[in-house]
Amino acid sequence: MYLRVRCNAMCKAVYAFIVFLGLLSIGAVAQDATAPAPDGSAAQPVLPSGDNKAEAKATLLPTTDTPAPRVSSAYMLPEGYVIGIGDGLDINVWKESELSKQVGVRPDGMITLPLVGEIKAVGLTPNQLQEQLTAALSKVLSDPQVTVSIVSVNSLSFNIMGNVLKPGYYPLTHPITILDAIALSGGFRDFAKEKKIYILRTGANGKQQKIFFNYKDVIKGRNMAQNILLKPRDTLVIP
After folding, report:
1. Does 141 share its domain with 163?
2. Are both 229 and 161 inside the same structural domain?
């Protein structure tokens, strides 16, 4: 009995010594991993490599003194879009925060900017206005870099009113038919007169005309020619 007890005690002591040596080994490995490199710089962790593993790479972003490219418009506008009354413009002058601002095109077609004063915007494309602003600022600044972006399109829009779920103004930045417009507005409310829908359109002579649309016919495939494209400043009325 005495020998058995003594043997058990010795086995436990040997086991504890082995565990202690293992802990010392783990500590040594961790210390070597964080030890500084011979040249004095901090050691970098070693990433696993292999045929099926991509190596991690750090890419430095290049620095530049030129302005970053800007999106010309917040909308998908047709090529050669001409600025109209009510449009919202973002004028950015590189490194001139006091001159950079958002402006709306007034009913007289003009905008106002510091150091430039009033300048006509209606009838110009964003690039043409950008060139005119650059020329005007060149008189007071050295090599001004100007960008013009359209942030809201109010001249290129149509209105839906009456018995629809979402009446209001909608941007007309791509071709939209009457059926498309009704879908955009969320559809009809109860008691909408689907056979008596019409468009109010102002002609070049300033006179307003009514263009009628029978929804019941069109969805049945009859008289499809009446499903015409909307034009800027049209008003779609659902009585």
Report:
1. no
2. yes
Is the same domain home to 124 and 161? no
Domain span including residue 188: 157-238
Is the overall model pTM greater than 0.85, yes or no?
no
Q: Are residues 199 and 217 in the same domain?
A: yes
Q: How far apart are CA 237 and CA 222, in angstroms?
A: 21
Residues 161 and 228 occupy one common structural domain: yes
Q: Cα–Cα distances in Å, from 214 out to 27, 176, 211, 236?
A: 84, 17, 10, 13
Q: What is the pLDDT of residues 221-233, one digit of tens each?
A: 999 999 999 988 8
* Counted domains in the chain: 2
Q: Residue 101 pLDDT more than 60?
A: yes
Same domain? 197 vs 212: yes
Q: pLDDT tens for residues 80-93?
A: 788 888 889 999 99
Residue 146 exposed, middle or buried by CB count within 10 Å (0-12, 13-18, 19+): buried
Q: Which two tokens stand for residue 8?
A: 């058990």
Three-state DSSP string of the chain? CHHHHHHHHHHHHHHHHHHHHHHHHHHHHHHHHHCCCCCCCCCCCCCCCCCCCCCCCCCCCCCCCCCCCCCCECCCCCCCCCCCCCCEEEEEECCCCCCCEEEECCCCCEEEECCCEEEECCCCCHHHHHHHHHHHHCCCCCCCCEEEEEEECCCCEEEEEECECCCEEEECCCCCEHHHHHHHCCCECCCCCCCCEEEEEECCCCCEEEEEECHHHHHCCCCHHHCCECCCCCEEEEC
